[in-house]
Specification:
- This protein has 17 helices and 21 strands.
- Helix 1 (about 5-20) crosses helix 16 and helix 13 packs across helix 16.
- It is globular, with a radius of gyration of 24 Å.
- The protein is of the alpha/beta class.
- It folds into two domains: about 10-90 and about 315-560, 3-Layer(aba) Sandwich (Aminopeptidase), CATH 3.40.630.10; about 100-305, 3-Layer(bba) Sandwich (Glucose Oxidase, domain 1).
- The strands form three sheets. The chain has a 17-stranded mixed sheet that branches. A two-stranded antiparallel sheet has the order 7-8. The protein has a two-stranded antiparallel ribbon with strand order 15-16.
- Bound molecules: zinc ion.
- The site of zinc ion has 6 residues, from helix 11.
């Protein structure tokens, strides 16, 4: 760790700067409250100590339902108790999340295409990946007609309906990934280059199920998907966790699948069409779905295992408006240990950045708030959610079973994979331009002489790939931000290079560990910002709001009206 000014002093400098900046004004409740913190717990050493423990091999990569997962939950609850937090769920810090792991037995998976008498089997792995979210022992689909439906999107606000006039009962829908905005790079089509939720594979399956289809085939292309086929292959093999439900998820598709671009090109060509031409046509809201000359049959057997994991929540009850909540969240789980790797090479997905950093941040903020002489007016919550890596399951369960009414949940901050490579002059917001939380972020960042910027890669749809999204879907504004690319000392190119290196070599890999190139000074500054934002809203009657035109504003307005 290259030594500059010891972190604690820097934190104080940042804090003092914000106080001094406001000296022309009478000290606000916030500054008085902040000044009451004598020993900031947001320090490089304290953060590193907790990340070290959580990302240690002994935690086995923190998979839900494992010994490492249990140790993680105990560790977090212990820290909440030590910070003096009250339980969030009645008299418990734990909210049980019932899940089922569904494992398709690769030996039993068959996908057969038929065209008249001609039949062709697709190779599971190299050509097709598939499974089901239905909690069933086996899937058997026979000769389901395949229909190419463009992007498979129904978006009234864009006057778009790829299912217009289409009866998809019993059929299998083939669609393109991402949305027409990305494909056309037309800033006036959908949200231009920035992916909308309509571009996410999760949306595509949800919409096809809503339409009553039997199955779906998403065509994989690396650029619009923003990851290569091998990521589809790896993340779709092995146990898939889903939330347990009374109806056994029978409202989901009988099967969900991806095929490679080459397979799709072949299927479309042998149906008398050209893939690239169809892609162009699909960019218009006049596009009409096309039945292909293929039917598909799917067979597979699953092994099902019920398991439960827990969200871990603690609160500092509000002093005057305890039923109103501002909260911090982050997921505690990661990918665990890959027991199939037996050649002695590293098979533990330590998840130091993803997301031991976020949990260490949650603990540091909890300790910092608990030092306030007087609890803020509104309650402050700290929510470590489970099973994010399996599809945002823990936050999805919490959002459906909240401890505080969602229309009393004024807002929050999600901390997922924080910046560990040093101080930056910029802070990036994932989903920039969404809510007034960003206004408060800008005020806090200004006190640190930092600027707030949009995320560099909105086409990747990161806004839809972490836990804040489940709150947004219920209308609750949650900020997802972190240190940017303008490294204060090493410059922007250095930061872009190390970020690219991280994504290529450490993201979702056993090498996501504490490395010598780490520098948590940036993370400390980011947490100061998050602390300031929370303290501001916890002590004010102001409620964060979605900006006009935002896709979640209508949901919030309706929920606040209740
Ligand atoms: Zn993560």
């Amino acid at each position: 760790m290259n030594k500059v000014i010891p972190m604690f002093q820097l934190a104080t400098v940042a804090l003092l700067a914000s106080v001094l900046a406001a000296c022309t004004h009478t000290p606000t409740t916030k500054q008085a409250a902040a000044k009451s913190i004598t020993d900031s717990t947001i320090t490089v050493d304290k953060l590193m100590a907790d990340i070290k423990i959580l990302s240690d091999d002994s935690f086995g990569g923190r998979a839900p339902g494992t010994e490492g997962g249990r140790m993680t939950m105990d560790f977090i609850e212990g820290k909440y108790r030590a910070a003096g937090l009250k339980p969030m769920f009645g008299n418990s810090y734990r909210q049980e999340v019932s899940m089922v792991s569904i494992t398709a037995n690769p030996k039993t998976v068959t996908a057969t295409l038929r065209q008249g008498q001609h039949a062709k089997s697709l190779k599971y792995g190299p050509e097709i990946m598939l499974g089901t979210s239905q909690i069933v022992d086996n899937v058997s689909v026979l000769n389901s007609q395949i229909v190419f439906a463009g992007y498979g999107i129904v978006a009234p606000e864009y006057e778009w309906d790829d299912y217009m006039g289409l009866d998809v009962k019993g059929k299998t829908i083939m669609v393109l990934v991402n949305d027409p905005g990305f494909a056309s790079q037309d800033p006036y089509l959908f949200n231009g280059n920035a992916m909308t939720y309509y571009g996410r594979w999760t949306y595509k399956y949800e919409e096809a199920a809503r339409q009553g289809a039997t199955g779906m085939i998403i065509v994989h292309e690396t650029a619009p998907a923003s990851y290569p086929w091998k990521v589809v292959e790896s993340s779709w093999s092995g146990p898939q966790l889903v939330l347990d439900s009374e109806n056994g998820n029978m409202d989901r598709l009988a099967f969900e699948s991806w095929v490679t671009k080459d397979v799709a090109i072949e299927m479309i060509k042998s149906s008398g069409y050209d893939f690239e031409t169809l892609k162009l046509e699909a960019l218009s809201n006049d596009f009409e779905a096309i039945p292909l000359n293929w039917k598909i049959s799917i067979q597979l057997q699953n092994s099902l295992e019920k398991s439960s994991s827990y969200n871990i929540g603690g609160i500092i009850p509000g002093s005057s408006k305890p039923d109103e909540l501002f909260f911090y969240t982050g997921h505690w789980d990661h990918l665990g240990t890959d027991a199939s790797i037996t050649d002695g090479s590293d098979n533990i997905y330590n998840g130091a950045v993803d997301n031991a950093s976020g949990i260490a941040a949650l603990i540091a903020l909890a300790n910092n708030f608990s030092q306030l002489e007087k609890a803020p007016a509104r309650s402050i919550g700290f929510l470590a959610v489970t099973a994010e890596e399996s599809g945002l399951l823990g936050s999805g369960f919490y959002a459906a079973n909240p401890a505080f009414a969602l229309n009393k949940t004024v807002g929050g901050v999600n901390m997922d994979a924080l910046s560990v490579y040093g101080p930056t002059d910029d802070v990036v917001v994932v989903g920039y331009g969404s809510s007034s939380l960003e206004d408060q972020l800008k005020i806090a960042a200004k006190a640190q002489n930092r600027t707030v910027e949009p995320e560099p890669t909105p086409e990747k749809g990161f806004f839809y790939r972490s836990d804040h999204f489940n709150f947004a879907k219920k209308g609750v504004p949650v900020l997802y931000a972190k240190g940017g690319v303008k490294h204060r000392e090493k410059g922007e190119q250095w930061m872009r290079d190390i970020n690219a290196y991280h994504i290529a070599n450490r993201y979702h890999a056993p090498s996501d560990e504490i490395n010598s190139d780490w520098d948590l000074r940036g993370m400390v500054e980011d947490l100061q910002l998050f602390f300031d934002i929370g303290l501001h809203f916890a002590n004010s009657s102001e409620t964060p709001y979605w900006y006009e035109g935002n896709e979640f504003k209508a949901i919030r307005d309706a929920s606040l009206a209740q």
